Amino acid sequence: MLIAAPVRERSQRELAYVLMVPFMVGAGLVHLVLVLLSVILTVNVVGVPMLALSVMAARGLGTANRRLAQAWAGVRVPDPGPFRAGPGLLNRLGAALGDVTGWRAVIHGLLRLPAAGLACAAAAGLWGGGLLLLGCPLWGQFSALAHLSPPGWPVAAPASAAGLALLLLAPKGVHLALAPERMLARTLLGPAPGETRIRRLEQARALAAEDAMARLRRIERDLHDGTAARLVTLAMSLGMAQDELEQADESERLQRARVLVDSAHRSAKETVAELRDLIRGIHPPALDQGLEVALATLTARSPIPARFEADLAERPAPVIEAIAYFCTTELLANVVKHSGASHAAVEVRAHDGLLTLRVRDDGTGGAAIGTGSGLGGLAARVQTLDGMIDIHSPAGGPTVITVELPLHI
To answer: What SMART domains does its record include (predicted)?
Structure first.
């Protein structure tokens, strides 16, 4: 497929990106001059607000560069946090002068100069040079028709072949030449490392609170609607049995008492079973023997044939084991309910400080967050522990869902 490379969508986007780079670099150079001038003028009163405005302008220029890199250079760069400032002019000036995102964009405008030069030189040499060499026979024909020189086929043919080779190599060459540009965009145009960590912790705290409240509401509902109702029925049955036993001189009364006691006994056993299920929902007892044993038992009990593989050289933290167990339970339930699969597989491995859980099935595919399969809840639960979930489920299958969690927290 090398011949089709020049017309591929990625090649076209990257070439368009390179063509836009000189304009963005020019805007960045103008902005750098303004920043330098503002720094020089900080000795005067006018220099401080001018520098604050320059930093805010850098934030805007960084946003434009980030959007361009995402759309045309294929760089995944998360957006930094919004600009926040307290009320009042002084607070706004202080927030602007200390805006980390703005200053990182200033540094990006300075460091991208050699990276942009490399990308433009590669595009000009490969695409431009290739087109120029490929057109050598045409130039030779024009020269011959104008009686400027005889046809130069002995020279034009190798030049044309070299031009074709350059055009075939151009997409890969430009892609490689854009590597510094992509690296700088990922490093300097996204959120700062500390900001990313703070945002992730805030989201994890909110998700943990919501998950805890949902668990408490579920337990409360189960206790109120199930166990509590059964206990009320049990108490009433025992009270009625007591009344019947007090007048047990008649055989009919004694029979009624026996029936009531039998009913109370069954209700008591069902209540104990419900309480046991609630306790298992809080912490599965199978995890007492370790995650590998728990998942092996869970897979063996699957209604459809399921294969299990494990490579756990190190035991995860208890909370990680619980999350992995619940994820596996939910994913296997989805396989049975929604996929139409005939076989499934569960793999769990511990490597480089990460626990990787992978559930596969040969079903119809189409699994996605927000389709009623509970994957959104799983993603939220996994994110509370700085984990991630990846869903690959094309139409027609197969479905592969991967969950990554830290081994320890």
So the answer is: HATPase_c
